[in-house]
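ok so i was messing around last nite and threw this chain in just to see what happens. nothing serious, just curious
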Amino acid sequence: MRAGLTAERLARAGAELADEVGFDQVTVSALARRFDVKVASLYSHVKSSHDLKTRIALLALEELADRAADALAGRAGKDALTALANVYRDYAREHPGRYAAAQLRLEPATAAASAGVRHARMTRAILRGYDLTEPDQTHAVRLLGSVFHGYVSLELGGGFDHSAPDTQETWERILDALDATLRNWPAT
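result:
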């Protein structure tokens, strides 16, 4: 076995591979080829391709949470909403495979211990600036996640390539609309 291989190094290499070829194409076999080692030698570090993908997902969630925390520092209201949205969009553009990994369905215990919890806390912190209480905060978290992920996924998939206006203009209008919606949340 090649010296220096660790589960963390394999997850990072898997994340790079995901960005190059797509998250769905990442396997232990593909990673073994990348390191020019036998597949069996990697199983002392990762249990399976699913374990490898889970590790990549956890890495991506951590990277995204760190970026979001940096972007949100000192911001509130629409400024914070826009900063968070742009973190997700920019990360997806820079790291499409990792972004896809961050969407992986995790086991409940793994999810609870992941940086996904930080994402939810940061989103809820933004929503406190809009005076939303439960259960409306949860509805709003789901709305934001759906819009961010839906737009980014369509954009990455080329869904807006053949129409005007420019996708940046649409993104900014969507963020304006989300801000207006959050400021005028319907009463139950």
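not much to say yet. The chain has a mean pLDDT of 94.
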